[in-house]
Design a protein that fits this description.
It contains three helices and twelve strands; from the N terminus they run H-H-E-H-E-E-E-E-E-E-E-E-E-E-E. It is mainly beta. The chain has a ten-stranded antiparallel β-barrel. It is globular and about 40 Å long.
């Protein structure tokens, strides 16, 4: 199985920092990618946005919170979709004060572009333009859909949020750095998280072929 990031980036994939190639390359079918670290900040301090974010919390997408120094773990599993295309299912567990929350998503390739399906059950979909800059990965959303009654409804550009993800290798800290910022026209920044973590590939149940997804 190949990696959806390799498919989307093509030859540019080899321009990633070697440590990032480990993260974004295919996870073997009988293995799991695991990492742990700390986010500098999670959520938004603009409390008037929290009711909006709360609508996505039950599906494990966004959460009404603003906290600093949040420990987290990430777990990546290989997925084969019904059309045979590769994808990665991820769970990110945030250790908030007094509780934990889990963000789930599945990123694959549709029409040659990276497409992220967010939530369980699926609540939003984002298509990304991917590029490599100075050995790091940058994703910027080019379209966003909400999932209503099982159907994707594309948000007009005038109101659609923009998601920007950057991942780079921090040589000084010897850790991977991740940053996600979600902004919306007029409103500005809706949500964010950023921090550093260590990551590696561990063996899963012997002979496991990865999950299958729709």
């Amino acid at each position: 199985m190949t990696s959806p990031y390799r498919v989307a980036l093509g030859s540019a994939f080899d321009e990633l920092h070697p440590r990032l190639r480990t993260y974004f390359d295919a996870v073997p079918a009988d293995a799991v990618g695991e990492g742990s670290g700390e986010f500098d900040a999670v959520g938004t301090p603009r409390r008037w946005l929290w009711p909006l974010l709360a609508a996505f919390a039950p599906a494990h997408v966004l959460f009404p919170v603003w906290e600093r120094r949040v420990p987290f773990t990430v777990r990546n599993r290989p997925v084969v979709r019904r059309d045979g295309s590769p994808a990665v299912a991820a769970e990110r567990v945030f250790a908030l004060r007094g509780r934990t929350v889990t963000m789930v998503d599945e990123i694959g390739v549709e029409g040659g572009a990276l497409v992220d399906r967010l939530g369980r059950p699926e609540r939003a979909v984002a298509r990304f333009a991917a590029s490599v800059r100075d050995g790091g990965l940058r994703l910027r959303s080019t379209a966003v859909w909400l999932v209503v009654a099982g159907r994707r409804v594309r948000l007009p550009r005038a109101i659609a949020p923009v998601v920007v993800l950057t991942e780079r290798w921090d040589e000084a800290a010897s850790r991977q750095h991740v940053s996600i910022i979600v902004t919306a026209p007029v409103i500005g920044r809706l949500y964010q998280y950023s921090g550093r973590f260590r990551y590696g590939i561990g063996m899963g149940p012997h002979g496991q072929e990865g999950e299958r997804s729709s």
